[in-house]
Each structure stands twice: as structure tokens, then as C-alpha cells.
Amino acid sequence: MSHSPSASPAASAPAMDHDANALAVVERFLGGEGATLPDPGNVPFEPKIVDGVKVFDMTVEEIQHQIYAEKDPIAGLGFNGTWPGPRLTVVEGDRVRATFKNNMKESTGIHFHGQRVPNNMDGVPHVTQDPIQPGDSFTYEFTARTPGSHMYHSHHNATDQVGRGLLGAFIVEPKDPAQRYDKLYGATQDIIWISNDALGGFTINGRGFPATAPIVAQLGETIVIRFMNEGIMMHPWHIHGMPMRIVARDGYPLGGAEFTCDTLGVNPGERWDAVITCDEPGAWAFHCHILPHAEGTDGMYGMVTALVVQDATAAAALAVAGAPVFACVIPSTSA
Fold first, then answer.
1. Which one, out of 154, 214, 232, 241, has a CA that is 20 to 30 A from the CA of 332?
2. What confidence tens digit (pLDDT) does each residue in 230-278 have?
3. E strand or H helix at 28, and its extent?
């Protein structure tokens, strides 16, 4: 199987230009290209509370979406106008009502992946419901029974519709606050990481390097990353500089089966939760280790970002100097 995406920027420049091209894309990343693009995904969406039910009013529509700043937008699909869709967060035991209005020219259906729902709320057209026709709406109502990291996405013509952006994160926090990651591990950041590998090539949260967003942490900070694979390929995520502690799979705590690694393979449909103690300062590459998903003859692209770990003194100095929020001082190796 070829691992080259249709939109790959690889193989377009002579080998002699590799260093210059590779430097140029890194400078675009460090210059904050991702922050310049409109309509970021994964934005938390606060529900309305109606008679004790958490209500999410969602739209499904055609959008113009940018993978990279220097390429024209592509014809994608989005929830509430973004790819990925908004981050939906509830608490175990909450009653949830999510209404999806189809503003596309094609039919669809929405599945809450990983949730135990009544059969008629499972979101599979021609099996549990009729397709949601253009201009129509469908309301999914259920009790959030399964805590952890989950997803919502199209389940109708899904290879095409999910590949074009109909995907989002659905987080169910445990009912017991002591079991939530901020209390359980002292995590101060809770990061969604959704991979896809169809329209627009290899993406993290709807962007390809150098337009991916860096993860910025203070030295000693503990963060959580929720890996979610909405694509059609397995992606082994490799972090430089420090390990990850893997604590949950598909929303279920691993308990005594927790493990530590620096490379985590995430299959299509899977969700893995990783806890990282940011104890090494510097800018650490974080990428898919199927190398054609991350680098070509023009340098890095696609499934690449960085974990930037700042010590407090350096962060303050950089802020005074007007540096981007994710800049760092790479420690010297000299004596």
C-alpha cells in the first residue's frame, strides 16, 4: 500500500534544495503559521441546560478549510463550521440531547463512537434510522454512560464524509471528580489529538505541518494527550525527549496494565490517553513514525508537531522580547 497522500508536498524539489526547503517549513512552524489560519477546531462548546438535559445544537455543512497557509482552501465538511468539530464535554450520568441540522447537499447520519446508547440512537442510517436528508435534522438523546475519550462522526458514506472533516471529540468526564485527570495525575492541560489521512493528506486536528499547533508546557508541568484516529491507517506517534505513560484505551482505564513508551501505535477508531511529565526543556519533535507521513524531499510535512517545554525564566524572557508564545530556548550542550 502506498503511504503517499494525494496532497503530499514531497518529491517536488531537487535533493540539493532539501536543506533550504526543510529550514523554510520549520521557520513557518516556529513563526506560528497554524495560529494564522481561520476556524480552528476542537473549540469547547458549552451546552444549553434544558430541564436538566445538556443540549448541543449542531450543524453539518460544506466548508472551505485550509490545511496549510500557503495552499488554497479545500472543499471540506464541518460540524458548526469547523474541522474537527467543537469539543463536546459532559459528565458521566448526564442526559445528553444533540440535534444535528444537515445543511449539506447530501444525506448523513451521526454516530457517537464509544458510547453505549439506545439502539435507535446509534446513528447508522438504514440500520437504526433513516438518513438525515438535506435540510432536515435529527436529535440524538441518551445518558452518557461510558466515561473517557470518545468521538462523534458521520456514519453514512463515512469513508468520504469523515475523510472530508465530519469528526469531533466527545469527552465524558468521570462522575467522581477524583478520577478526572486534573485530580488523578495533576494534569494542567488536556489536549485533543485527532489524526486523519484522507482529504488534504496527513493531518493532526485538521492541519498539516507546518500549520499544526505546537504543544507548549512549562518545565515540570503534567499534560494529558487524548489520541484519536479518525483515519484509515494506523499511525505510530513518537515523542522525542521524554516518555508517555499510557493510562486508558477507548475510554477504559488500563489500571495495572498501564505502560510507558515513546512510540504509540493508534489504529483507526482507537482512542488512547497519554500522561506526559514535561521534565526536559527544549523543542521536542512529535510525529507519526511512518516516515512518509511526516517527511519528504521538501522537509517535514503532514503528521508533525512539537512539544515545547519552557523553563519559567526563559519563558519570561521570551515574552518580554515579544517572541511567539511557543518559542523556547534550546539548552546548550557546552560545558
1. 214
2. 999 999 999 999 999 999 999 999 999 999 999 999 999 999 999 999 9
3. helix 18-30
**Would you place residue 331 in the very low, low, confident or very high pLDDT band (cuts 50, 70, 90)?**
low
How many residues appear in the chain?
A: 335
Q: What is the pLDDT of residue 332?
A: 47
What's the CA gap between 63 and 40, in Å, rounded?
A: 12
Question: Kind and range of the H or E element at 277?
Answer: strand 271-277
CA distances 248 to 62, 155, 240, Å, are 34, 25, 21
Fold of the CATH domain 48-176: Immunoglobulin-like (2.60.40)
Peptide bond into 210 cis (omega under 30): yes
Dump pLDDT digits (tens) for 155-178.
Answer: 999 999 999 999 999 999 999 999
**Taking residues 276-300, what's their average pLDDT?**
96
Neighbours of 256 (CB within 10 A): 5
Tell me the C-alpha to C-alpha distance, in Å, between residue 13 and each of 33, 202, 299, 300, 329. Answer: 22, 20, 10, 13, 31
Span(s) in the chain for CATH 2.60.40.420: 15-36+181-320, 48-176
Which of 229, 234, 230, 99 shows the shortest CA–CA distance to 164?
A: 230
Residue 252: CB atoms within 10 Å: 14
Q: What is the DSSP string of 161-181?
A: HHHTT-EEEEEEE-SSGGGSH
Q: Does domain 15-36+181-320 have CATH number 2.60.40.420?
A: yes
Whole-prediction pTM: 0.91
